[in-house]
Every structure is written in C-alpha cells, then in structure tokens.
Specification:
The complex is a heterodimer of chains A (290) and B (396).
Chain A lengths: L10 E4 L4 H13 L3 E5 L7 E2 L2 E4 L2 H8 L3 E4 L3 H13 L4 E4 L6 H11 L5 E3 L5 E4 L3 E4 L8 E8 L2 H13 L4 E6 L10 H9 L6 E7 L4 H12 L5 E6 L23 H10 L3 E2 L6 H8 L2
Parallel strand pairs in A: 1-2, 1-5, 2-4, 5-6, 6-7, 10-11, 10-12, 12-13, 13-14
Antiparallel strand pairs in A: 3-4, 8-9, 8-11
Helix pairs in contact in A: 3-4, 5-9, 6-7
Chain B lengths: L4 H10 L7 E4 L2 H15 L4 E5 L12 E4 L2 H11 L3 E2 L9 E2 L3 E5 L10 E10 L4 E7 L6 H7 L4 E5 L8 H10 L4 H20 L2 E11 L5 E3 L3 E4 L8 H4 L9 H8 L3 E4 L4 E5 L2 H13 L6 E4 L6 H12 L6 E8 L4 H15 L6 E7 L2 H9 L5 E4 L2 H12 L1
Parallel strand pairs in B: 14-16, 16-17, 17-18
Antiparallel strand pairs in B: 1-6, 2-3, 2-6, 4-5, 7-8, 7-10, 8-9, 10-11, 10-12, 13-15
Helix pairs in contact in B: 1-6, 2-3, 5-6, 10-11, 11-12
Classes of the chains: A alpha/beta (290), B alpha+beta (396).
Protein name (chain A): Succinate--CoA ligase [ADP-forming] subunit alpha
GO cellular component, one term (chain A): succinate-CoA ligase complex (ADP-forming)
Pathway (chain A): Carbohydrate metabolism; tricarboxylic acid cycle; succinate from succinyl-CoA (ligase route): step 1/1
Chain lengths: 290, 396
C-alpha cells in the first residue's frame, strides 16, 4: 500500500516539452513511473519521449485516462495549469513550480476547493512511492521501499530524512513533499492523516520549518486521532532570525507561535517524538519502531 | 520587496486612496523647496519631516519631526539626512538616512477631533484568503494592542472570487465608530485600499495611522508596503522602486549571482543546497557550539562558479571561523560539486579558515575521494553528525 501515487497511477506532465519537464519526465520514466503523456499548448499531436503530447489536459485525460499530473509550467502560467488540471478531472495535481505569485495561488486554491482533486505543492519536490512511482524531482535511488511515511516542506531535507531512515535498514511507503510556499494544496495535517490511515505505513516522519501553523495543526489532529502509530518530528529554523524569509517564501517567523521552538513544543505536547538535531531523524525512527 | 513610505503612498494614491501629501527630498535645500511647493498646493502651514528608511518605529528614533517654519524645515532635514537612525526595528548601528519625505500637516484643528486608526491588508495563511485587519487603536504598536486589548482588533476576510463586498466596507467603518461624512469617506478609503492591494500584487499593506481629520477626511498618514517578489514580472514600473541602499550589501551581491543568502551574526559560514536543509544545517552548527554566520542556498546547480561566488561571499565576513558545506546530491552529482569546491578553492588562493565538506547522495564516495586526494586543507565527511562533530572540533 501507499498513498497518492502508485504503479497504477496514470501520469501526465504539464510543461512536458520544456527543459525542466523534459529532464524530469525522462528521470521519472527511467525510474519506471507510468508516464502516459504530456501537455504543451500548441504542440498537440507531436510525440515527445515516446509519449503523446496534447494541447489541453482535457484531451490528455480523454485519450490516456490520466488521473495524475505533475506541473513544470513557468510561474506566470502555473496557477492556470493547476486550474486546468482540476477542471479536466485530474485527481492528484503535483506542482513543482517555484515562484508562483501569491494572488494567483489564492485564486487557484479557491477554484479547486470544491472539485474532486488533491493539490500537492506548489514549490515542492513531489511525491514518491519507492519501487512504484516517482512523481517529482527527487533522486529515486535514495528512497527504498518500506514502512515509514515522510511528510516534508523541504526537498533536500526530505532526501536527508529518507537516507537516514534507509540507513537504519528501514524503508519508505510514500514520501510527500508538500512545499514551502505560503499557500499550498495538501497541508501537513492532510499528508500526515493520509499516511496514518495507510495500513502499510507503521511510522511517520514529519519535517517542518518556521512560519505558519501547519505543523501545529497536524500535531493537534494526531493527538485527537488517538493513533498509536508513532510520529517523529523535526522543525528546521531554530536559528533563523524573525521577519526574514529563509529561502522558501513561506519560511518566515511572523510571531511568537511560528518559531521552531514554539512548534517543537506543541509537537511534543501532542505526543510526537521531536528530535532537536536533524542528524538524528533516522535513529529516532528506528528507536520508536523498536 | 519592501518600499519606502513615499513609494508606498504613490502606489496607494494611484488607485484612489487618499494620502497625506508629500514630496521627497535628498538635501535640506530640496526640503525647503518641497515645503514651499506643498504650502502652495495644500495650504499647509506646518510640515512634517520624515526619514525614509526601510524600518518601522521611525518616530521613536527621532526620524519624524514637526517643522513650524521653513527655517525649521531646513534645520530638521539637515539633522535627519545622513543620520544613522536607530529604531526598535533596526540593528544597534541603525540605518543611514539618504532622503526625507516633507509632508503636509494633517493634524490641523477643526470641527471635530482628529482620530487615528490602524489598518492592514495581508494574507491569512491559515485559509489562503486575504484579510483586512483594523483597529480603533491607531498610531500605536499593533503587537502591543494585540497583547493588551485583543478585543480592539477586528478582521474582515475577503472572498477570493468576489473581492471586498460593500457591506464589509460598511462594517469596518461602523466598527471604527464613524458616522456621517467620515463614515462615507472610510468606506471609500477601504474599497480603494483593497483595490490597490490586489492590483499592485502586494503581500502586505500596513497603514498606521489611518487618520480622520478634523474636517472628516480619511487619509493614509503612513504606508508600509511589501510587494510580492514573485509577481514583479507583472509590474516592471515597481521594480524600479527597489532601493538597494536599504538592503544588505552581501545579500544584494548574492542575489546578482543567483544565490539565496541571508547575512547573520555568527562565526560559522555555511553553504547548502535547498532551503530546508540550509536551515537544518544552521541549527546543527548551533548545536555543535557555533553560531551560523549566514543562510545560503546554492540551489540546484552547485557548479564551480556558484561555489566560488558563495565562498567569496562567506569569506568577506571577518567573523567567520569555519565554513561548513552541506550538499545532498540528487540530480546534482556530488563529484561535480566536489570538483567545483576544489576549483574554487584553488582559484581563491588562500582560504584562511578550515572548510568542512559534507557531500551525501549521488556519487558521494567519489566526491570524498576527490577532495581527500586534492591535497587541500578541506575536511570531508559523509554523515550529517560527522559534520557537526567536525565543526565542534575546529571551533575548539
């Protein structure tokens, strides 16, 4: 079992023929991901990486039965691409694009909220279910199949956590990069909930950072759920100064409740195993799984 | 991107928001000319001279002063221009003032008492909607109002597809206790303000105070405007408003070469790929007994040129006692980054501090060998914890 993506997912790539789209689509196909085609407006009818190119997501869905998309469209057009995918009936919309204007995301998030779909990202590394599907830009070889789920706002920190987990002789069910923007589709809470409810996942690693309330919300949910599956938490940015954006647009301390210290405290109070050092994530997972 | 008060007011006014009028001046002589012109245009007798720097609390630091005649305008402008303004929001050294805004005096006597309010427009991250936050307690530190009298702060959420609705503007005006002409003026003010916020792609408007004048006009006396950097491509004219004198020199330089850098006060520099891992690395430095000297995300393409630029940036800081490089190679291969480090090191010549390089992921072993065989004074490690231990070792 896994969540969001698996070997049966039918995946299209929006921004398929661009340089980013091409490079990562190639990597995904090489990994064994079921990429059924792509979309680039104006290039419909062509073939790219031995897959059909469509002008619209609607056509792609009609012809290939696609249910999942990964978006590499440039920032100025990415919110529109998200809405197009949702409108065409795509169920899982994974958006890698970094730098989408906030105003555009407010509209896109509002448009898709009543449609039957789930947005992951934007500004995220994607989702991987090891051995089945890599729908993202992560290095596939780091992730081995196993029983630990990962939720993270950050790309390389996700790889770091996965690497540590694998080195403990464990593996990953699904790793979900939710993204570091102020407005994202799937929240920390929703991603944790998906993994806690996944029968194959026996423990969850939750990696957050300064800014916003997503981790606190996830921790509250976990506590109320009464779940016995252990969750290991790490919050990056203990040393970040207030009021400065640390790389990710959403990583900014705005008040006293979104610092790393405040978040760690809430996580611990909700029964999450908090590690202070980012070097101890893997060890802690092995410890809580006994 | 942050703007000066005068730039923020310009944007506000271009969308029909009434503002306290002013003219920016670089010298005391220009200030006097500006004051004369303002008196002609607005009939104001007195003037307020306001330091233009990217920091709040300017009044507390002596950066906002009332001038009752042209002589005082010249003298005050002379005092403020060139001063290092220290406010609760600046560093201890303060910020150098390059220009002042000469404004009309809007607190003139009249039929009613002037009243100050607080108003901001910002994103509510919890639900992905914009909101207008406002309070009857204007002209004060809003964090303090929130702490002491939270019931005096109101919020109005804006529907993303419908925008600000008429009843919401009225509700705001009523909650601020207004009636008659001032009430009408406030509803107009709020509508124009929200229009300005969305049309300019801003991520923060903070108007403190919004003033009801003694003749019941509603105007913005101050304006803190932050534009969404990601939307600047739609607003080429706003891009010209960037004042790099207000920004950290090293950060401006980093930006020019495509590095994401934040200058900090510590003694261990770091260079990392990815923002989350960069923050985690900073935390690890602290836990190892050091203090991070910077945040630096080299991004996805850590080639020799970028690595060299990053090294040079970090080495400019005399407080740096060691540098920790932490790269998790994914799509970027570690051996390429390692080659970049070796090349950069040789190109720089003498590096006066120990460098600890931790490369993990794709081709990490080859990368470690490459560095170990280079003969350079670079410590290479593979595990995160080893990196921390090494930092501790070189600091002691």
């Amino acid at each position: 079992m896994s969540v969001l993506v698996n070997k049966d997912s039918k995946i299209i790539v929006q921004g398929f023929t661009g340089s980013e789209g091409t490079f990562h689509a190639e990597q995904m196909i090489e990994y064994g991901t079921n990429v059924v085609g792509g979309v680039t407006p104006g290039k419909g009818g062509q073939s790219h990486l031995d897959r059909p190119v469509f002008n619209t997501v609607e056509q792609a869905v009609k012809k290939t039965g696609a249910d999942t998309t990964i978006i590499f469209v440039p920032p100025a057009f990415a919110a529109d691409a998200i809405m197009e995918a949702a409108n065409a009936g795509i169920k899982v919309i994974i958006t890698i694009t970094e730098g989408i204007p906030v105003a555009d995301m407010i509209k896109a998030a509002d448009y898709i909220k009543d449609l039957d779909c789930r947005l992951v990202g934007p500004n995220c590394p994607g989702v991987i279910t090891p051995g089945e599907a890599k729908v993202g830009i992560m290095p596939g070889f780091v992730f081995k199949s196993g029983k630990v789920g990962i939720v993270s706002k950050s790309g390389t920190l996700t790889y770091e956590a996965a690497d540590q987990v694998v080195k403990q002789g464990l593996g990953i069910t699904t790793a979900i990069g939710i993204g570091g923007d102020p407005i994202i589709g799937t929240t920390t809470k929703e991603a944790v909930e998906l993994l806690i409810n996944d029968p194959a996942t026996e423990a969850v690693v939750m990696i957050g950072e300064i800014g916003g309330q997503l981790e606190a919300e996830a921790a509250q949910w976990y506590k109320e759920s009464g779940s016995k599956k252990p969750v290991v938490g790490f919050i990056a940015g203990e040393t970040a100064p207030a009021g400065r954006t640390m790389g990710h647009a959403g990583a900014i301390v705005g008040g006293s409740d979104d610092t790393a210290q405040a978040k760690k405290k809430i996580l611990a109070e909700c029964g999450i195993h908090v590690v202070n050092s980012p070097a101890e994530i893997g060890k802690k997972v092995a410890e809580v799984l006994g | 991107m942050n703007l000066h008060e005068y730039q923020g007011k310009e944007i506000l006014n271009s969308f029909g928001v009434e503002i306290q009028r002013g003219i920016v001046a670089q010298t005391p002589a220009e200030a006097v000319e500006a004051a004369k012109k303002l008196t002609e245009e607005t009939g104001t007798g007195w003037h307020v001279i306001k330091a233009q720097v990217h920091a709040g609390g300017r009044g507390k630091g002596g950066g906002v002063k009332l001038a009752k005649n042209l002589q005082e305008v010249e003298q005050i402008a002379g005092d403020i221009i060139g001063m290092n303004l220290i406010t609760p929001q600046t560093s201890a050294e303060g910020k150098k003032v390059h220009q002042v805004l000469v404004t009309e005096d809007v607190y003139y006597p009249g039929d009613s008492e002037p009243e100050e309010y607080y108003m901001s427009v910002l994103l509510n991250r919890a639900n992905g909607k914009n909101m207008i936050m406002y309070s009857t307690e204007g002209g004060m530190d809003i964090e303090k109002v929130a702490e002491d009298t939270p019931h005096l702060i109101f919020h109005e959420e804006i529907d993303p597809s419908l925008g600000l609705m008429g009843f919401q503007a009225r509700k705001i005006a009523f909650n601020l206790g207004l009636s008659g002409k001032a009430f009408k003026e406030m509803t107009k003010f709020v509508s124009a303000l929200y229009k300005a916020y969305t049309n300019s792609d801003s991520s923060l408007f903070e108007i403190n105070p919004v003033l009801k004048t003694s003749d019941d006009k509603i105007i913005a006396v101050d304006a803190k405007v932050t534009l969404d950097d990601n939307a600047l491509f739609r607003h080429k004219d706003y891009e010209a408003m960037r004042d790099i004198r207000e920004e950290n020199e090293a950060e401006v330089e980093a930006k020019a070469v495509g590095l994401n850098y934040v200058d900090l006060d510590g003694n261990v520099g770091c260079m990392v790929n990815g923002a989350g891992l960069a923050m985690a690395t900073m935390d690890l430095i602290k836990q190892a007994g050091g203090e991070p000297a910077n945040f630096l995300d080299v991004g996805g393409t850590a080639d020799a040129e970028r690595v060299e630029a990053a090294f040079n940036l970090i080495l400019k800081d005399p407080n740096v006692k060691a540098i920790l490089v932490n790269i998790f190679g994914g799509i970027v291969r570690c051996d390429r980054v390692a080659q970049g480090i070796v090349d950069a090191y040789k190109s720089i010549g003498t590096v006066r501090v120990p460098i600890i390089v931790r490369l993990q992921g794709t081709n990490a072993d080859i990368a470690k060998k490459l560095i170990d065989d280079s003969g350079l004074d670079v410590h290479s490690v593979i595990e995160f914890q080893e990196a921390a231990d090494k930092v501790q070792e070189v600091l002691s």
